[in-house]
Amino acid sequence: MGQEPFSRTIDPLSPQPDPPSRATLPDGYRKYKDIGASAQYHTHAVDDDASVTERTRSSPRIRWDWMRDKALLVIELGLLAGLILVLLSSLSTLNEINSASSAAQQMPTPAMEQEPADALITVAILPGGHTPPDSPGGSAPQEIPAHLRAVVRQATPLPLPTRGPEHAVQIQIPRINVNAPVVEGDDWESLKQGAGHHIGSANPGERGNCIISAHNDIFGEIFRRLQELDLGDEVLVHTTTQVHRYVVTQKRVIEPTDVSVMEPTSSPIITLISCYPYGIDTHRIVVIGELQP
User: Per mean pLDDT, which range of 82-86, 124-128, 158-162, 238-242 is the poorest?
Assistant: First the structure.
């Protein structure tokens, strides 16, 4: 008699065994989930296809900081372009003024001049200053110390003298290629026509201080290179009858209010005055020369 194969039977009335329990995982790490470089990243359930498609179709986030930087760049480029246009316009206007003044200042050389005249070179400024008559408060023909202004206002201006044979008509400075007419007066309108002989100062060749001023950056820039003169350089001043030769003995830069260089002297000298430095005009450059036989 064969044996039946062994089979395990379970008694339905016996208590059921407990299902195996899952091991408890440590969760201490959860307190660091919002700390560190990865705090912004969190796990989440995988979205279904519909959710992924919807998120993909959503519009991207606007980068306001990028738009702000680009807007500032456009504004800066616009301002730079405007500044360049203003500078070009100013240079064009200055060139037109200098060209018109140079044409007005051209004059024939006196008959007794021995050397051919060089081309006109533009000049600087001085007693007349850079303030036009139509500016607010009027023109400023000469910078005067504050403690003397009340006295100067009471003084009657010297009348424009009648030109005579002893008056300067032309100035030449070979070292800096200056060859320009000389007019009587050094106010705003006078210096448009050339170098200005200060009314009341000595005439060329006479004993005393012969004062001649001119612009360095407008109206022909006659004294543009006045600072390049050295001791011993010649200054020739023409009258209708003769040429007076001066030799440079001094050169200095002074404040606009230092009017001592315009005081009368006992010896025959010439004082050339212009604004300095070029285009800034905060000071005055003064060149003094002595008359030579």
Answer: 124-128
CATH of the domain at 211: 2.40.260.10
Can you tell me which residue has the tokens 């001085």? 126
Distance in angstroms (rounded) separating the CA atoms of residues 38 and 32: 10
Give the residue numbers spanning the domain of 209.
98-144+165-292
* Residue 117 belongs to some domain of the structure: yes
Helix, strand, coil percent values for the chain (each to nearest 5): 25, 20, 55
pTM: 0.56
Q: Which among 117, 187, 197 has a CA at the least distance from the CA of 163?
A: 197
Please tell me what DSSP assigns to residue 247.
Answer: E
Does an H or E element contain 290, and which? strand 283-292
Burial class (CB in 10 A: 0-12, 13-18, 19+), 237: buried
